[in-house]
Amino acid sequence: MIEARGLVKRYGQVTAVDGLSFDVPPGRVTGFLGPNGSGKSTTMRMIVGLDAPDAGSVTVGGRPYRSLPWPLREVGALLEAKAIHPGRSARNHLVALAQTNAIPGRRVDEVLELVGLAAVARRRAGTFSLGMGQRLGIAAALLGDPGVLLFDEPVNGLDPEGIRWVRTLLKGLAAEGRTVLVSSHLMSEMALTADHLVVIGRGRLVAQTSVEEFIASHSGRAVRVRSPRIADLVPALVTTGATVEPAGDGAVVVRGADGPAVGDLAASLGIALHELSPASTSLEDAFMELTAGTVEYHGEVAGVPGTGGDGQR
């Protein structure tokens, strides 16, 4: 169980985490989502004691990480896969970690086999590809057979087979009753892997709910629109706070405005609509709608004028 209460972290004049509170219970995969710069990595670093909060607290199993007598046996973390001495072999890297926490040497070979690196265990880590480095980082997280696991972008650099393997692994670990917190920008993968979500923006909690409830709560606010004057309608929609993206066949998907609102706006401008229908909502769609106001930089969508929000490129 991970419990964060009122976490605050500042770097100079920048507040990276701002009064953040959430729980990560055992027995399910919790997805940790947020735009770039939202404070996810900083929060995970505070959980494992790499950064000290300026206010608030975070505990693992009721205790701060730094008070754990054998931390690798209780908490495993993959925060930066390449944080490995490049001259060490994969096996020697894990042996060194195991010795710091009195973990039996046989466990090193077990995790190397588990992550598919047994055949290259004596190769220098500096020669590994990004995907192999990810596997080694996962092996290090699993080394102490801990009950709490944190993974920051664990599928980065993996091929489709590797991504599926990580998905199965995370679900299996949660099914064993472990606490699993996973941060990722791949919404499609999170939709398949996570049971629950903690969503943050600009260091603050935006949502804490199940994946199904999160998607359902935003499914009524997306509509598909087609019009011969779509270029005139889009800027007007954006001024209302809606977001617009191309949907093919000259149509757009409007998020943040329901059908009646879009229809009324089009009518007030004398714009004919050839289609106005509900659009299906994915985890990515719901995430983009909910966090639109917390993204620091916006760009325009090619072919759809006026979608840039603040107009910055």
Write the layout of secondary structure elements.
Layout: E1 2-11, E2 14-24, E3 28-33, H1 40-47, E4 55-60, H2 71-74, E5 75-78, H3 90-100, H4 105-114, H5 130-142, E6 148-152, H6 160-175, E7 179-183, H7 187-193, E8 196-201, E9 204-210, H8 211-216, E10 222-226, H9 230-239, E11 243-248, E12 251-255, H10 259-268, E13 275-278, H11 283-291
Helix pairs in contact: 3-4, 4-5
Key traits:
single chain; 313 residues; alpha/beta; 11 helices; 26% strand; elongated; disordered C terminus
Main beta-sheet strand count, sense and barrel state: 6 strands, mixed
What level of helicity do the residues show?
25-40%
Give the termini distance in whole angstroms.
42 Å
Strand content bin? 25-35%
CA-based gyration radius: 23 Å
Give the helix tally.
11
Shape: elongated
DSSP strand tally? 13
Task: Give start-end ranges of low-pLDDT stretches.
Answer: 301-313
Rounded mean pLDDT is: 89
Physical arrangement of strands within the biggest beta sheet: 5-6-7-3-8-9
Structural class: alpha/beta
Order of H and E elements: EEEHEHEHHHEHEHEEHEHEEHEH
